[in-house]
Amino acid sequence: MMNSFKKIFEKDTWDEIFESISKNRTRTIITTIGVFWGIFIYIALAGSATGLENGFDEAFSGLSKNSMGVWVQSTSVPYKGFEEGRRFPFRLSDVDYLKDRVPEIEYISPGLQAGAFSGSPPLVVRGTKSDNFNLFGNFPTQAKISVIKIYDGGRFINDEDIKYERKVAVIGEGTQERLFNQGEDPIGKYIIINDVNFKVVGVEKFAEGFGGFGSDSDITIPYTTFAKMYNRGDKFGWMFISGYDYVNPKYLEETVVDNLKVLKTVAPEDDRAFGTFNIGSLFESIVKFSSGMIFLSLVVGIATIFAGVIGIGNIMLIAVKERTNELGIRRALGAKPLEVKIQIVLEAVFLTIIAGIIGIIVGALLLFVINIGTANLEDFPFTNPTVPLAIVFGAFITMITLGTLIGLIPAERAVSIKPIEALREE
Amino acid sequence: MIVINKLHKSYNMGSSSLHVLKGIDFNVEDGELVAIMGSSGSGKSTLLNILGMLDNADDGTYDLDKIRIENLDEKTAAEYRNKFLGFVFQSFNLITYKNALENVALPLYYQGIPRKERQKTALSFLEKVGLRDWATHLPSELSGGQKQRVAIARALASNPKVLLADEPTGALDSATSIEVMALIQKINNEGKTILVVTHEHDIAKMCKRIVHLRDGVIVEDKKIKQNILKNV
Ligand SMILES: Nc1ncnc2c1ncn2[C@@H]1O[C@H](COP(=O)(O)OP(=O)(O)O)[C@@H](O)[C@H]1O
Ligand SMILES: [Mg+2]
Description:
heterodimer; A: 426 residues; alpha+beta; 2 domains; twelve-stranded mixed sheet; two-stranded antiparallel ribbon; 14 helices; 14 strands; B: 232 residues; alpha/beta; six-stranded mixed sheet; 10 strands; 34% helix; globular; binds adenosine-5'-diphosphate; binds magnesium ion
């Protein structure tokens, strides 16, 4: 018994198996196609799912995953003596009110803007160049909510800017292009916004922003400076809010709106008074989609691998029948039943592994080609389609296990008949 | 070398049972060349298969070189076949995808002999049957006579005590049959004990003793004057 098992590790055993596999090529190829196909589909699907997830991740990399925006529209339901169609502004005191009432909030960043969806973009002049740009007034917290990347050498708005109402500006890449010469460093230079001199302190790298109203040609100045310049007092129209990591984005959105309705005396059933969007929910559905796809590929892949291995077993079974005579000869010459079984099982396992490896390689190759092919497609979110090593490894173990189990059936079959009957078969 | 006593064998076929061997008593000494004769269906192969441990008797005893052969499990039977017995079949039974040398080396593989040594031994046996130059040929590239000589080399490779040949010339023309029988005589002259099953008188006369089987019993068992063939 021990001696027979030792055979698994002997070169002779494998030579015998390689011979049997390589000299019966058609049988080998037909046998392996099933498993190859299964693992190939699995790798291609799982990799694509990862690629999509990474792609979405990249597309939304400019945003905190737990953030939302809220703005005032106008009421649609009369309530407590107010008529419908009422408009009202947010006030800075509302920020503290919300923070007090909703402990799940990590940051709030009220914003002002001229251009984009309200007001008109101011004229900005720099030497002989001039153009109209959307102007935003922001707090430094804005950088905590949406990921703002500033090119080296520059900075975003800071607390001092807010406190002293400094005339400093962070400009977009597009803004720089339109106002400055190529190769010119804008940091420390002055631009004139509405006849007021502003010093450029940073250039913002463009990232897909909130709700699509950000562009690469914006200018951001301190909130307080903006409020003073446009005489806004403590009124503002929208704010960005981010919750702590543990907070459910949907819950955050609902709680914020409910509190604002109370604060602003809006009917609880009025769904039109505030506009909101919620990156968290959007993101959640994408993540759900990707993990759904990974799960699907897992199910499909495993099912196909399973079918492939069963196919191997089936063909091995047919092969064993075809090889009855050969196995009879081997047994007449002294092959012990266990040796015959080991040979057949190892053949099955070996074929499974080879088919699996080829499937993995071809699958990876396909992903590689897709990745390169989509690298230049901006609108197609597909990046780094990889399959976790653990999953590849798991698939491998599954294949070996299934290959062994399935191989046992034809192996058992091969030794179940008497050698003399096996010899009689032609 | 071989001692059998009151050997019985029946085949069960559904409800009925066919009594093929009805009490065979029979001894073979070391170095004998015995022909087992009889018409088709007389039970020659059945007897040889039992002697070859490819099948079991229902009753009676069988001793091979003083070893009692009974209640063998398939593993022990395989071991005994490998060590004690060499088989030659009417239909050659070579493995089609292995060349002549690999076929001859196969019993040695199952003895656990290292590859190099296997190949060396196998080649020396191929030489003995005159097929050294055909070592790398597949069975499909060999004539019937050549195939049977490869099979004989394979049967000899593990140096068995007894060679069992079931109609070794059954698929060959008469000229080739004589070649094969000459080879068998040569091997016998070197001391090997050989049993040849045949239904042809000419072939039987090339042996040293004829055992005649009819209806499952031995009806005649006599030493004869051997028709000695010229070795070619
Ligand atoms: N496996 C078997 N099952 C049923 N009957 C068999 C089997 N093998 C042989 N027989 C029958 O037993 C008898 C003897 O067969 P066999 O020993 O092959 O004869 P021989 O070799 O002398 O021609 C024949 O009638 C044959 O049909
Ligand atoms: Mg016969």
